Amino acid sequence: MLQLPKPEKTCSQPSVESAYEYCRQITAEYSKTFYLGTLLMPKAKRQAIWAIYVWCRRTDQLVDGPEAELTTIETLDQWEKNLESIFAGSPLEHPDIALVDTLQRFPLDIQPFRDMIAGQRMDLKRDRYETFDDLYLYCYRVAGTVGLMSNAVLGVEPVIGSSPWQKNQTLHEPTQEAIALGIANQLTNILRDVGEDTERGRIYLPLEDLRAFNYSEEELFNGVINENWRQLMQFQIERAREFYTQAERGIRDLSRDSRWPVWTALMLYQGILDVIERNQYDVFNQRAYVPKPKKFFYLPVAWLRSQAL
Ligand SMILES: CC(C)=CCC/C(C)=C/CC/C(C)=C/CC/C(C)=C/[C@@H]1[C@@H](COP(=O)(O)OP(=O)(O)O)[C@]1(C)CC/C=C(\C)CC/C=C(\C)CCC=C(C)C
Ligand SMILES: Nc1ncnc2c1ncn2[C@@H]1O[C@H](COP(=O)(O)OP(=O)(O)OP(=O)(O)O)[C@@H](O)[C@H]1O
Ligand SMILES: [Mn+2]
């Protein structure tokens, strides 16, 4: 994984625009899928997502990046104090300038950011998950929270009652659906990255599922692909798709200018599951990703779905 270029430690005179440009470059570098989605957004919203992406990526890199072995609980405690400084309006490093500006534009709450750090603390201490409920907590913290952060930027569309007595506008905040998309993305990411995670001694697949499908940890570490593996993976894929389906129901509640980007990001990431199936569940020898032509095929389909009420 590419290392984030070191941001300048002190904020000499970098501008807000240069900070957002740095965030744009990082998002484009690390996640083609989400970057493509942000390009479909109005400028203020896509810059805000870039700022959030970089904070999330830097947080993840503390435990997942090249310097992870230097990271301790104290490191994450300090990172949380840095977060509090950002929410107090005091950026400490160049990219923070973009997030401070984003916080002035959008009603972001600090709690999902704190929960993301709590998820990274889990990664420091755990490399096995006994049940899906255990894994769900981890997925909520590292990915469901991203849905909550994103929702604050994406916005919701007021629904004006159609009948005479429904003159007041009602807002339905698709919170659960946003969390569901985060969970779906994380479950997809786990299935895509099974190979590289086992190389680091990590198993995110619930051990209760391995037992249920009679597939051992030893077989997993040896990358054994047999009928039990295929059935175990298909079970995981179907569960991830259930979360995508729940998420889809919430997109119609988002602001109109957020629906195409979110449908696009959802379809692109969900497409990874189809690639895993096409690859016969071989996630050990090849990385499942959606080829560029297919990514651009999804764009008009996502647009049509974003128009449907
Ligand atoms: C289009 C849009 C609004 C996207 C949001 C982009 C964003 C801010 C993503 C942050 C991702 C990130 C770096 C989180 C840190 C922890 C982590 C790595 C989480 C996993 C992401 C994988 O990213 P990537 O594929 O780059 O990882 P690799 O290094 O390549 O393995 C996660 C899988 C979490 C992703 C979760 C989301 C993007 C949340 C999606 C939910 C919404 C956008 C809410 C939409 C609203 C409704 C109502 C459905
Ligand atoms: N972490 C990684 N390890 C190895 N190869 C990668 C990694 N990330 C991307 N690639 C490679 O980059 C190319 C694009 O893959 P992909 O679309 O997944 O990019 P990405 O930036 O990781 O997008 P996303 O993270 O949103 O899935 C592919 O050739 C893929 O193999
Ligand atoms: Mn990536």
Task: Please characterize this protein's 3D structure.
Belongs to the phytoene/squalene synthase family. It catalyses: 2 (2E,6E,10E)-geranylgeranyl diphosphate = 15-cis-phytoene + 2 diphosphate. Pathway: Carotenoid biosynthesis. The model has no long low-confidence stretch (mean pLDDT 93). 39% of the residues are buried. This protein has 14 helices and two strands, in the order αααααααββααααααα. The chain starts with 15 loop residues before the first helix and ends with a helix. A two-stranded antiparallel sheet has the order 1-2. The longest helix is centred in the last third of the chain and has 25 residues, at 227-251. The protein is mainly α and 309 residues long. It folds into two domains: 15-107, no CATH class; 126-162 and 172-302, Orthogonal Bundle (Farnesyl Diphosphate Synthase). The site of manganese (II) ion has 2 residues, from loops.
Number of helical runs?
14
* Beta-strand segment tally: 2
Radius of gyration: 20 Å
**What level of helicity do the residues show?**
55-70%
User: Tell me about the biggest sheet?
Assistant: 2 strands, antiparallel
- Separation, N- and C-terminal Cα atoms: 40 Å
Broad CATH class of the largest domain:
Mainly Alpha
CATH superfamily of the largest domain: Farnesyl Diphosphate Synthase
- Bound ligands, named by name, code or SMILES: the ligand CC(C)=CCC/C(C)=C/CC/C(C)=C/CC/C(C)=C/[C@@H]1[C@@H](COP(=O)(O)OP(=O)(O)O)[C@]1(C)CC/C=C(\C)CC/C=C(\C)CCC=C(C)C, adenosine-5'-triphosphate, manganese (II) ion
What number is the mean pLDDT?
93
Query: So what's the overall shape?
Result: globular
* CATH architecture assignment of the largest domain: Orthogonal Bundle
**Strand ordering within the main sheet:** 1-2
Integer count of domains: 2
H-E string? HHHHHHHEEHHHHHHH
Task: Kindly estimate the percentage of residues that lie in beta strands according to DSSP.
Answer: under 5%
Low-confidence stretches: none
Classify the fold: give the CATH topology of the largest domain: Farnesyl Diphosphate Synthase
Protein name: 15-cis-phytoene synthase
Organism: Euhalothece natronophila Z-M001
GO biological process, one term: carotenoid biosynthetic process
Pathway: Carotenoid biosynthesis
